[in-house]
Design a protein that fits this description.
The complex is a heterodimer of chains A (about 180) and B (about 375). With about 180 residues, chain A is an alpha+beta fold. Helix content of chain A is about 45%, strand content about 15%. By secondary structure, chain B is mainly alpha-helical. The chains are: A alpha+beta (about 180), B mainly alpha (about 375).
Amino acid sequence: MAKNLISRDDNRRFLLAVFEREEDILGATNAARERGLVIADVYTPYAIHGLDKAMGLRPSRLPWVCFALGLAGASFKVWFEFWTSATDWPINVGGKPWNSLPAFVPVTFEVMVLFAALSTVAVFLVGRRLLPGKRPRLAASGVTDNRFALVIEETDATFDLGEVSAMLRSFGVSHLEERVDQDLL
Amino acid sequence: MTLKHGAFNLSDRTYGLFKWFAILGVVTFGLGLLLAPQRALSSFLLVNIGLLGMGLGAALFIAFQYVCGAHWAVALRRVPEAMCGILPWAAGGIVITLLAGKSLYPWTSEHAVGMKGVILSYPFVLARTIVFLAIWLLLIRAIVRRSRLQDQNGDASLSASNTRLSALFLVVFGLTFWMACFDWVMSLEPEWYSTMYGVYHFAGLFLGALAAMVLLVVWLHRVGPLRHVLTEEHLHDIGKLLFGFSTFWMYIWFSEYMLIWYADFPEETGHFIRRLTGGWGPLFVANMVITWLLPFFILLPKSVKRNPNMLVKVACMILVGRWLDLYLLIYPSAVGHEVVTFGVVELGMAVGAPGLFMLIFIRSFRSFPPVPVSDPLLEASLHHHQ
């Protein structure tokens, strides 16, 4: 669900912790962030309220894309309706002026919503490289079903595996393993 | 669980201010009745429709929360409950308007013919008014009383019984409110009609009540009672509703306008022509700008909906828009559309209404714990996040 912070560097090591409960992953992520650990990513089968804050994620830029594309769709539609009904093929409807703005509003509104919604999904899929033919590579089995995985980057020598493992165990971690980055993604 | 909340640190100055506002309103109404009775009565109808809307909007908010089983606003529920305190006063005001303000309603002197004459016969209108108001008041009082009773005995079945009452209230309200709007406001222009009128009034009253709730919860957070209760998460949700219903209001406004513009029947377009000519045109546009256009763009970013200072400014703007909306609905019909009539009477009563509202709100809010302490959903509401 989150922004992928992992780069293609073979020497980086990660600690993968799998949890069974939503409360545990939320608590463990919060605790990891409070300790100053680098959270590489969190994998969950569904969106968890408050997880973005726990991970310290920046606000998504997707709403701006949605706004811009909605505006673009609305502008295009106003222009198109003006062009069809006032320029290219003027039709007298009930004696109204050809460029009757109130008549354009409903369709403009619909097209704005359609443009904004479809293009936001498209931008999301392209931006995340979720294109057709993409092979799923799961951090751990079950993260699309009923399990939650927290991936912590082991940044430098100060990373104390014993201490971090103990912290994760206090949140009832069900599976813990170290990986180098190629195994993960 | 023990609940931490601040004491109500209300300064005498603030309370005194509301009192002076209310007195100013009463005095201008009295003077207006002597000097310009038509304007005073129109303004009286305006403030009572506005105040009734505040109470009904608050009751609808409570009812929606119960029916959805929503937990997020439970900790703030005492605010809409106290807002309902204005209802008996506003209901009385509506009845007084109908009794004393026959001059506002042309159908009381020139009787309409056919079915319209039956619908708009004075005793029938008065009877309908009293029945509608009585049903609403009884249902709302039952809901609010059960919620307050729960504080003492912690009986969870009261929540279930309130859910049933809320569902009943929503259905009854939906079936009766549009008729009430026809009787009290649309019949100021008895030859004009619009089937969007009821839902238009609903959109306005719910938007106004939400804006008032924003102001009240932020204020109560600052003066104490909701200090450890209200969070950014709650504000964010109310902000979303404010944004949504501002847009809903515009949507309904336009739906009414477009149908009438398209069909172009003389008996229908008159309503809008009267509000677009004379000095009314700029006000007609300003209504849309401050009730929807500006709030829409200001409330778009998430950060604004979580920022109490910004939210309060937008809510103030929407409340001014709410007054302007009712002014535009009532004044061109009841006082005259040739010139824009605005003066001491209108201003004094527009200031007096919130003053009176606040006096009743404070009295009602203070009489009970500031949060529903025994509601089973309170815990979830206090830790609400999104």
